[in-house]
Amino acid sequence: MKRKIFYILLFFNAYFLFSQETNFSSDSPIFPEQPYDSIQFYENLKKGKQFHKDKNKDSAIFYLNKSLTIASELKSNSFLAESYYTIAIYFENNNDYKSAIENYEKALALYDILNNIEYLGLVHNYLGYCYTNLYAEDKAIFHYLKSINYFKRINDEDGLAMNMNDIGNLYYD
Asked: Looking at residue 2, what is its pLDDT?
């Protein structure tokens, strides 16, 4: 009797085991997608920065854009600002000043909402640098002066010195 029950159970287990439909395509993940979190954001941002440092441009922009997507999904202004800021640095370092300006402007709007005075000063300085390289001196000096005002508000002497140096370079060139 025990033997018959054993074989019946074995038969049903085998039936259910082999009747499972398994699809391992990339379109249907084995595990369900989990919502994004800050760890994923920082991991992608870190990878993007490292690839940028290693001069691997395609991988860098892929991970930086992925961090931007995650920041959008999380609806986090601070993550969005950090993503746009980092992407702008990527474009600036690759001499794509127009794309850098677009991303700095987006970061600037978000840092304004966040009232992050230090990064408002930094972004205005970097915008001045980009406009300097595009030979738009009037826009460059505007952003350098805005940056000086922000750095004065937080008594950042290094920020003030950086802007004074950049204004000197603007007139020297």
From this structure: 63
Residues 6+ apart with CB under 8 A from 162: 125
pTM of the full structure: 0.78
Q: How many CA atoms lie within 13 A of 119 on its CB side?
A: 20
State both tokens at 81: 């600002």
Q: Are 121 and 150 in contact (CB under 8 A)?
A: yes
- Smallest CA-to-CA distance from 73 within 99, 101, 41 is with 41
Superfamily of domain 35-115: Tetratricopeptide repeat domain (1.25.40.10)
Instruction: CATH 1.25.40.10 in the chain: give the residue spans.
Output: 35-115
CA 41-78-100 angle, 5° bins: 85
Four-CA torsion 140, 146, 152, 158, nearest 10 degrees? -30
Tens of pLDDT along 70-129? 999 999 999 999 999 999 999 999 999 999 999 999 999 999 999 999 999 999 999 999
Q: What is the rounded CA–CA span in Å between residue 4 and residue 152? A: 88
